[in-house]
Amino acid sequence: MTRLLAQGQPVIPDFGEASDCVRENRFLCPEWVTDNWAGVLQPALLEHVKLTLIAVSVGFAISLVAALVAHRFRIVERPFVVFSAVVYTIPSLALFQLLVPVTGLTVATVEVALVGYTLLILFRNILEGLRNVPPDVLEAARGMGLTRRQMLWSVELPLAVPAIMAGLRVAVVSTIALATVAALVIPEGLGYPIFLALREAFKTEIVVAGALAVGLALVADVLLVGLERALTPWARARRVA
């Protein structure tokens, strides 16, 4: 069975021409996965990666700037935390519905919502990482004649990397999960084949698309762990010692 699309709507599959596995709607039909990888699953996977990368990148940039400002001016912290916490508590379906009248059934609607969900996690972790730098380290940096900006980029941010990466890992995994709901707004991402399969009660597509979403989250988390280790060589040296 090959999934066809007409004007963005699914065409009811012809199970009569499909294999016995597909006609009987078994739990997993490898031949369906092979036939539909290039036309259905791979594009959905790539779209899911794109939605996640854009949301996390924009969210990280906003959170980093906000955290740096709040680190310098504490008065900024509470308003940003309140705003991001309010956004974070809104259910994803409700947030999409609130945004649709403004931005329409577009990628912008999805990305605004996904970015909003990353802000609280990233902001708090970045700010806590900056504030948890040992005072004696900062004092030593001042004694060496470093300016405030030099201390930020050479001392505080590098030492905050573990906390920042912890927040980034949570944000990425949660964004991958939330991006599946985006199929209610746009026909993109792994959520789209899942919703189409639910409509048809086709088990293989549900299982495979769901497994790809889980696998994507696991791979992303492993890559971020590797990135953290690469950015903090002193931590590895300390563990070895």
> What is the C-alpha radius of gyration, as a whole number of Å?
22 Å
Count all strands and give the number.
Answer: 2
**Biggest β-sheet, characterized?**
2 strands, antiparallel
**SSE succession:** EEHHHHHHHHHH
Structural class: mainly alpha
What characteristic shape results from the CA principal axes? elongated
Poorly predicted runs are 1-16
The average pLDDT score comes to 86
What is the count of helical runs?
A: 10
Strand order of the largest sheet: 1-2
Residues in helices, as a percent range: over 70%
Task: Assess the beta-strand content as a share of residues.
Answer: under 5%
CA(first)-CA(last) distance: 58 Å
Short summary of the structure?
The protein is mainly α and 241 residues long.
How would you describe the overall organization of this protein?
This protein is an all-alpha fold. The protein contains 10 helices and 2 strands. The protein has a two-stranded antiparallel ribbon with strand order 1-2. Strand 1 (5-6) and strand 2 (9-10) form a beta hairpin. It is elongated, with a radius of gyration of 22 Å. Mean pLDDT is 86; it is low at 1-16.
Keywords:
241 residues, mainly alpha, 2 strands, elongated, disordered N terminus
Record the SSE blueprint.
Blueprint: E1 5-6, E2 9-10, H1 20-23, H2 30-72, H3 77-89, H4 92-103, H5 107-131, H6 135-143, H7 148-179, H8 191-200, H9 203-231, H10 233-240
Antiparallel strand pairs: 1-2
Helix pairs in contact: 2-5, 2-7, 2-9, 3-5, 4-5, 5-7, 6-7, 7-9, 8-9
